[in-house]
Design brief:
Layout (H helix, E strand, L loop, with lengths): L21 H10 L4 E4 L8 H10 L3 E10 L16 E7 L2 H16 L7 E2 L1 H6 L4 E4 L6 H8 L2 H15 L3 E5 L7 H15 L3 E3 L11 H12 L20 H7 L4 H13 L23 H16 L5 H17 L2 H16 L15 H5 L34 H15 L15 H12 L3 H9 L9 H7 L1 H6 L5 H4 L1
Parallel strand pairs: 1-2, 2-4, 5-6, 6-7
Antiparallel strand pairs: 2-3, 3-5
């Protein structure tokens, strides 16, 4: 059995660059006999949770990493074209501390260093290097770039910087994608490894899963860069950036077998750890005459109930007490206090607030505290759809504010709890079936009338995928036999 692990892998969370779906990639890794696999998306860790869950499902050891952008100067420099990106560097978390530090590094790239890309600098690497394994990355790495443009002396100076930061956890990375500059760089990296007594590792800069996916990936790159497929000056990959089997990698590096074996050394260094942790909620500042959040929530609930109901009937009291007990037992009183506070403050500021959406409309406590405007008792709405003691999960309250008011509410929350305790959560947009046909047609320079004809074959039904449409619509089958090769594409 060939011991090899892919340590340079991009998933579809390398937005409009990676085309490898995590679940499909993990299945191929398992089918190929791989025992471990890394994730190293460009500048982000968006896919880490999906990745670790899929790895566990397939019995594969997950190695959490990121391909970061390291700027030549300070991350705070954001002036000229030279500051727009940075050199590539692979970082892998060796243990829980390394994962925490990697998370900090990536976050700082966005919060402090973002300028076209999320950039960090060596000051940050020095500060948060504990528990992290690093490698020199692809031709876009600082050491390979120095070898290409400045010579061995400068490359060695950079290497010595990295060795001071990462010590025995720094590796030189060899890649063979058939690119003209790779082999001369590889030979110089091997010389450096001999001189400094360092380990080299073989990697394949994986951006998709199978060799036949290269055309689809090529089109994806055109979508990212706004270029046509036949543009001679556009960015191109070599067609070798797929998840190769250990056997393929062994053949590719048959003259440097230690480069494959050394990947196992890194796998062995990586400890098993869990990235899940208890939910952390800010403490709601209580008025002086209340000792705990539960009592204050009960006080606000009954204060609101007296305002909204003409009479507190036994039915209403029973419902409120039941909900308050569930909230108390699940430890969510603070959450309700925080949400009601900024919603009521929004109304005070004149911000338009929606009546409440989703299962939260089933909570009488939410209604009485002003979170929602719908009486669940009047409309027989179930609280258990919102919070269920038998299915413990965080409550999820959907709130709508008008566009201008949204920023006011965000600023209020930041001022009250501190900027480091407030986050906006990313939403990933996906291409709908119709728009993806039109976008790909543009890249292929398919005439607009033909692109429209194909797009209109997709049913108007929301959420319809291309796969579903292909199964349902005979005309889409026929498109694969069209005389025009661009239509078949």
């Amino acid at each position: 059995m060939i011991e090899f692990t892919h340590l340079h892998v991009h998933t579809n969370f390398s937005i409009l660059d990676g085309a490898a779906r995590i679940d499909v990639m993990m299945k191929k890794a398992a089918d190929s006999g791989m025992k471990a696999l890394a994730i190293t998306d460009h500048g982000n860790m968006y896919g880490v949770m999906h990745f670790t869950q899929a790895a566990t499902k397939h019995g594969i050891k997950p190695i959490i990493g990121c391909e970061v952008y390291v700027t030549d100067g300070s991350r705070h420099d954001k002036k000229g074209k030279e500051d727009r990106s940075g050199y590539h560097l692979i970082l892998l978390a060796k243990n829980k501390k390394g994962y925490e530090n990697l998370s900090r590094i990536v976050s700082i790239g966005y919060l402090e260093g973002f300028y076209y890309t999320p950039r960090i600098d060596k000051e940050i690497l020095r500060k948060y290097s504990e528990g992290i394994i690093a490698s020199s990355a692809c031709l876009g790495g600082e050491i390979p770039q120095a070898l290409i443009n400045e010579g061995m002396k400068r490359a060695e100076e950079i290497l010595e910087e990295f060795l001071l930061i990462f010590k025995d956890d720094f590796y030189l990375e060899l890649q063979r994608h058939g690119l003209e500059e790779q082999e001369p760089v590889n030979q110089q990296l091997l010389q450096m490894a001999d001189k400094y007594n360092l380990k080299v590792i073989a990697t394949n800069d994986c951006h998709y899963i199978n060799a036949e996916d290269s055309k689809a990936h090529d089109i994806l790159i055109c979508l990212q860069t706004g270029k046509d497929l036949d543009d001679p000056n556009r960015m191109r990959y070599s067609g070798q950036e797929y998840l190769k089997t250990p056997e393929e990698m062994a053949e590719l590096f048959s003259d440097i077998p230690q480069a494959l074996a050394n990947t196992q050394e890194i796998v062995d260094k990586v400890e098993e750890y869990k990235i899940m942790r208890d939910i952390l909620l800010p403490k709601f500042p209580l008025p002086e005459n209340f000792e705990n959040e539960d009592d204050y929530l009960e006080h606000l609930t009954y204060l609101g109930a007296k305002k909204f109901y003409n009479e507190l009937t036994p039915e209403i009291k029973e419902r409120l007490d039941f909900e308050l007990k569930v909230i108390r037992d699940m430890g969510f009183a603070g959450y309700f206090l925080i949400v009601q506070d900024f919603i009521n403050e929004a109304r005070q500021m004149g911000v338009a607030v929606g009546p409440g959406r989703g299962s939260a409309a089933g909570s009488a406590v939410a209604f009485c505290t002003g979170i929602t405007s719908i009486d669940p008792i009047k409309y027989n709405l179930l609280f258990e759809r919102f919070l269920n003691p038998e299915r413990i999960s965080m409550p999820d309250i959907d709130i709508d504010f008008d566009d201008e008011g949204r920023e006011k509410v965000l600023q209020y929350v930041i001022d009250k709890y501190g900027r480091n305790r407030v986050a906006q959560i990313v939403t990933f947009g996906t291409m709908a079936a119709k728009s993806s046909i039109r976008d790909v047609a543009r890249v292929l320079r398919l005439p607009l009338p033909e692109a429209d004809r194909l797009a209109k074959l997709v049913p108007e039904r929301p959420g319809t995928s291309l796969q579903q449409a292909y199964k349902e619509i005979p005309e889409l089958h026929q498109a694969l036999e069209d005389q025009n090769p661009l239509v078949r594409e």
